[in-house]
Amino acid sequence: MAIRKELLDELLKDYKNPEDLLGDSGILKQLTKALLDRALEGEMTHHLGYEKHCPTGKNTGNSRNGKNRKTITTDHGNIDIEVPRDRSSTYEPKIIKKRQKRFDGFDDKIISMYARGMTVREIQGHLEDIYGVEVSPDLISTVTDSVIEEVKSWQNRPLEAVYPVVFLDALRVKIRDNGHIYNKAVLCCTWHYNGRA
């Protein structure tokens, strides 16, 4: 997911210390809440089969019925989220299940989903690995479509002109020490900067 430099600049414009980023009301916590709320709305849209305020949803027998507030514990502290409800009470949240209070490693899991290339099948397999939940490709498409603008802006972000790269490797050699021969690892380091070694 590409995040535009301008968006990062806007998010970090008042940044003065780590508390602004990682604290109780920090950016990371707010971003996690916003993504969870958006994903839950995407799940509800998939469950009902129509977007919020869409006229095709009239007289379907089921519709949105407000939200429940819920506090979950994450690696960054407690976060209050809003779980949507439907009138017939048939909606079962997938990303944060009913009665689930702990959500470990949320940020790492989301980053891992994007790092796998974001194909629907890979995300489906990853969600099953992480949450133990079988979800349909259609559900994944609906949920990812609800955050597609953020994904596109991150993918289209401008890249830096120069990236330094360091390669570390070990060469196994035999060393004689006090009459004994041992296998030792000799570390080799090469660096590349702007195409030069």
Provide the low-confidence segments as ranges. Answer: none
- β-strand number: 4
Structural class: alpha+beta
- Overall shape: elongated
Radius of gyration: 23 Å
Main sheet summary = 2 strands, antiparallel
In N-to-C order, the SSE pattern is HHHEEHHHHEE
Distance between the termini: 31 Å
- Counting DSSP H or I runs of 4 or more residues, the number of helices is 7
Q: How much helix is in the residues? A: 25-40%
The figure for the number of domains is 2
Average pLDDT number: 77
Spatial strand sequence of the major β-sheet: 1-2
What does it look like?
The protein is of the alpha+beta class. Helices cover 37% and strands 24% of the residues. A hairpin with a 2-residue loop joins strand 3 and strand 4. It is elongated.
